[in-house]
Write a structure and sequence with these properties.
- The chain is of the alpha/beta class and 300 residues long.
- Among the domains are: 118 residues, P-loop containing nucleotide triphosphate hydrolases (Rossmann fold, 3-Layer(aba) Sandwich); 58 residues.
- 62% of the residues lie in helices and 11% in strands.
- It has eleven helices and eight strands.
- A five-stranded parallel sheet has the order 2-3-1-4-8, with helices on both faces.
- It starts with a strand and ends with a helix.
- The structure holds adenosine monophosphate (AMP).
- Adenosine monophosphate (AMP) binds next to helix 2 and helix 3.
Length: 300
């Protein structure tokens, strides 16, 4: 699956991208994380972008496009990816379309997270993350079980991002409205945009995302199974039965009725086989969702 998460800072893209990556086993590609790492490692790119990030401004398209392209080409992304925080401008989206077009793997869905600005500011000011494993917490709505200690890796390095202050957040929201919001029309025109109400709990939002993904992307895979199986089963199993029953009932003049009944039975057998297979996939997704929901409710 190839998905873009679109939403203002603090709308929960990062948290949901992590949950999706775990449930669907595809990498989360976050340009914010890539750039923060470059800043922490004091690379050439890091030195160039540090001041802009601190001010809540967008860094140059060229830098982020190059960073993302490296990740898209990596073998991890062969099964797909969840793009978090990229693209953030029309030129970035156009470049992404071009590069994925070369690879023959276009974006399939764009999930647009809907949250009011007031809620966003409150969320961001209270946000903390683990400097060791990247787990995200909120001091009010989802604090770690033990104060100051990461639930996932036990690290005591829970930090607030330098750009998560109220003043910087306002600049980031301005940048979003000016440069990123036009992407809503861009992807709507491609019929790829789906809205996700993102005010509720992490688990609820995740459920909404899974519903969209399973309806819009997964059925294409399932359909192939559904079409292939009944054809084989119907012919092999139903035929002798049809002949037997038809011959037996010929004398009684009930041939047509018998055929109808047998066809129904064959359909049922095929349907049963398909449904037997389907729960395996469903169960896998449920387990992943349960894991995530457990984590979410633990945090609460
Ligand atoms: P994020 O973690 O996605 O909120 O990104 C943090 C900061 O990194 C942003 O405020 C920007 O300064 C920079 N950044 C991340 N992604 C992009 C992007 N696609 N284009 C430009 N700047 C970005």
């Amino acid at each position: 699956m190839r998905i873009v998460l679109l939403g203002a800072p603090g709308s929960g893209k990062g948290t949901q991208a992590k949950m999706m990556a775990e449930a669907y086993r595809v990498p989360q590609i976050s340009t914010g994380d890539i750039l923060r790492k470059a800043v922490a490692d004091k690379t050439e790119v890091g030195k160039k972008v540090a001041a802009m990030m601190d001010a809540g401004e967008l860094v140059s398209d060229r830098i982020v496009i190059d960073a993302v392209t490296d990740q898209l080409r990596s073998s991890d992304s062969r099964r797909g990816f969840v793009l978090d925080g990229f693209p953030r401008t029309i030129p970035q989206a156009q470049e992404l379309d071009t590069r994925l077009g070369w690879m023959g793997r276009p974006v399939q869905l764009v999930l647009h997270f809907l949250v009011d600005n007031k809620v966003l500011i409150k969320r961001v000011i209270n946000r903390m993350s683990c400097a060791n494993c990247g787990a995200i917490y909120n001091k009010q709505s989802s604090p770690p079980k033990k104060k100051g200690v990461c639930d996932q890796c036990g690290s005591k390095k829970l930090v607030s991002r330098t750009d998560d202050s109220e003043k910087t957040m306002r600049s980031r929201l301005e940048a979003y409205d000016q440069d990123t919001a036009p992407l809503i029309s861009y992807y709507r025109a491609q019929h790829k945009l789906r809205s996700i109400p993102a005010r509720s709990s992490m688990a609820h939002i995740f459920d909404a995302i899974c519903d969209v993904v399973d309806t819009e992307i997964r059925p294409m895979e399932k359909k192939i199974v559904v079409i292939e199986e009944p054809v084989k089963i119907k012919i092999k199993k139903a035929d002798p039965e049809v002949v037997d029953q038809a011959t037996t009932k010929k004398k009684t003049g009930k041939k047509a009725t018998a055929k109808k009944v047998t066809k129904k039975a064959a359909k049922k057998t095929a349907a049963k086989k398909v449904t037997k297979k389907a729960p395996v996939k469903k169960a896998a997704k449920k387990t992943a969702a349960k894991k995530v929901t457990k984590k979410a409710s633990k945090r609460k």
